[in-house]
Amino acid sequence: MLTIDSLKQFGADTDDGLARCMGNEGFYFKLIGKVMEDNNFGVLEEAVASKDLDKAFEAAHSLKGVLGNLALTPIYEPVYEITELLRARQDIDYSGYLKKISDKRAELAELLK
């Protein structure tokens, strides 16, 4: 179940996230649910797989903004890292970053149940 305490245990900076939502816990939780449905997670994976680094960067950059605003630090950090690598259009193996993002996203999804 999603609670402030469960988000803190997950590693989210709930004070910052709530402040950005004007202290409205219900609104904060609603936005977290919406970010979990964000198509950019899938776009990022597909674009990396097809080596479309421009498209991958756009998806990662979008996710970085949303995750940062919600202070979902455990997902934000690997998204930030992959965004910066993609910004430089580095042709590297991104699978480790994608796995970390996917694992943390799955962990957060469990809290939403």
Distance separating the two termini:
6 Å
- Arithmetic mean of pLDDT: 97
- Assign the CATH topology: Four Helix Bundle (Hemerythrin (Met), subunit A)
Instruction: Report the radius of gyration as a whole number of Å.
Output: 14 Å
What is the total number of structural domains?
A: 1
- Number-wise, the strands total 0
Mind explaining what this structure looks like?
With 113 residues, the chain is an all-alpha fold. It has a single domain, classed as Up-down Bundle (Four Helix Bundle (Hemerythrin (Met), subunit A)). It is 76% helix and 0% strand. The chain has 7 helices and no strands. The longest helix has 18 residues. It is elongated, with a radius of gyration of 14 Å. The model has no long low-confidence stretch (mean pLDDT 97).
Please render the helix and strand layout as text.
Layout: H1 4-10, H2 14-20, H3 25-36, H4 40-49, H5 53-69, H6 73-87, H7 95-112
Brief synopsis:
This protein is mainly alpha-helical.
Descriptive keywords:
single chain, 113 residues, mainly alpha, Four Helix Bundle (Hemerythrin (Met), subunit A), 7 helices, 0% strand, elongated
